[in-house]
Specification:
Largest sheet: none
Number of strands: 0
Radius of gyration: 24 Å
Structural class: mainly alpha
Number of helices: 14
Order of helices and strands: HHHHHHHHHHHHHH
Distance between the termini: 6 Å
């Protein structure tokens, strides 16, 4: 197990270098002058522009800029945004909000997917199963901004059950509605995976053996069927968590969530290399960490899996 963990940690290095290099190159290749765009219509003298470019190392060749960025990463310096605020402070302010929102959305997704998927699999072909498949297909087909606007108008403005927008500080109660929107929009795929896995597991020999040994249905379903059916669901949920950590830009924009998505979108528009690449670097680390934890959970869910 320890050797496997060390091997996976070593894999992080080339992935991290490759990802940051590609993102930095794409931001560097964007057309236009980000420093000139920062001043808008009131353009200063060329000497001032050159001085600001030198401050952000934008007067250097691409490879020099990238190496300077890597050097800063290793000493904990993520650079300075065009607003003059250190990128590390922006990360510290926005990532906790996005992590909180993503965790709430994933919890809602998992609860819905596991419960509905399990009962649909146990009632294959019956009314409950058919209705849930249709509902799941609808949620997969409707764009998330439509679900968000309907939830914001209906549950937030009309019924008043939730706050329609998120206030400063992003308290948990304000994040509940956008988390429900994200969880509901994502649960359909995990639900279908759980349902299919439950149906397949019910036909396995070890389940028949468990019933033949006299074990009750209340023992067989949660211990032998559900536990062995969760692996594809956990894998898909880990992917969803990585997607949410990138920033649910549309949802964050509609509900005014002060998270990663809004800041990252603005940084891309402004061509802020340091901000964009620093955010991506942290996202990659979180995504790889989540996938490592999920891989280790496989051995807990399925005793047949061992890591040599």
């Amino acid at each position: 197990m320890l050797r496997y963990i060390l091997f996976r940690l070593l894999q992080v290095i080339p992935v991290l270098l490759g990802t940051t290099f590609l993102i930095y190159f794409m931001v560097f290749a964007m057309p236009g002058d980000p420093i000139a765009a920062m001043f808008g219509d009131k353009q200063p003298s060329e000497a001032v522009l050159e001085r600001v470019r030198a401050q952000y190392h934008l007067d250097q060749p691409f490879i020099v800029q990238y190496l300077l960025y890597l050097k800063g990463i290793f000493v904990g310096d993520f650079g300075i945004s065009f607003s003059g605020e250190p990128v590390s402070q922006i990360l510290a302010r926005t990532f906790p909000v996005t992590i909180k929102l993503a965790a709430m959305a994933i919890a809602i997704e998992l609860v819905l997917a596991v419960i509905i998927g399990l009962f649909s699999g146990l009632r294959k072909g019956k009314l409950f199963d058919n209705v849930n498949l249709i509902i799941g297909l609808l949620f997969m087909s409707i764009p998330i901004f439509v679900i968000a606007f309907i939830a914001q108008f209906g549950l937030g403005l009309k019924l008043g059950w939730f706050k329609p927008t998120v206030s400063s500080g992003a308290p948990v109660q304000d994040l509940l509605l956008p988390a429900i929107v994200l969880g509901v929009s994502l649960y359909a795929t995990s639900m279908r995976l759980t349902r299919a896995s439950v149906i397949d597991t019910l036909n396995q020999d070890f389940v028949r053996t468990a019933y033949a040994k006299g074990l009750s249905r209340g023992r067989v379903i949660p211990v032998h069927v559900l536990r062995n059916s969760l692996i594809p669901t956990i894998t898909n949920t880990a992917t969803d968590f990585g997607v949410l950590m990138v920033g649910a830009t549309v949802t964050e924009g509609i509900f005014n969530v002060p998270g990663v998505g809004n800041v990252l979108f603005q940084a891309i528009l402004k061509g802020e290399n340091a901000t964009v690449v620093s955010f991506v670097t942290v996202m990659v680390l979180i995504y790889l960490g989540v996938n490592l934890v999920v891989d280790l959970l496989y051995a807990v869910l399925d005793p047949r899996i061992r890591y040599a």
